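Please review this pair:
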Amino acid sequence: MLRRLFLAAWVLLVLAVPPLAQADIRSPSAVTVAAKADDALVLAIQEAKADIDNTDLKHAMQVLKTVRKRQDFEAAASPLRHGVILMIAGLAADAEDWSAATEAIVVASEMPDAVAVDWTLRLDIAGPTDAPEEALRSLTVLAQRFPPSSTPSATASSTIGAIAPGACPMDRPGCSPSPTPWSGRAWRPTMCSPI
């Protein structure tokens, strides 16, 4: 349910920002290809959003995977491509298809349009996939690139506990890591004595 809300919010954000608002310096034929690709992605995102609203997540995933396989996918505006791939990651995670979720979130989080949400989803996906390196990398990126806007979540605390037994969870009494990844200061994991 939480991921569906995230996906709906992301779709609204992507559709609210015109992807080709800047002056277009491409050739007319490239503009035509890009415009067709943009239109296809917008339609796919709208269809997937309607499917998500109707809880038809399988069809939403099928629509997004189909548009991602288009030959002109790379010609589309970066925010649209990013939105499609991020939605695939969220839907795959919702379906607990961890290999598809991992593949998509790695691509989405490495795109120039990636924001803290990408890295938070990457952290969420790393927990169930038993990928401690990915979880720690996600935490590090969140701490370094997005310190004021990133706050520890229950998912982050449980993921830290799962990947690093003995690591100091944020909510354990008598165990206060200082500084934390979210404090903006130099951070390194702190170990606690067993309870």
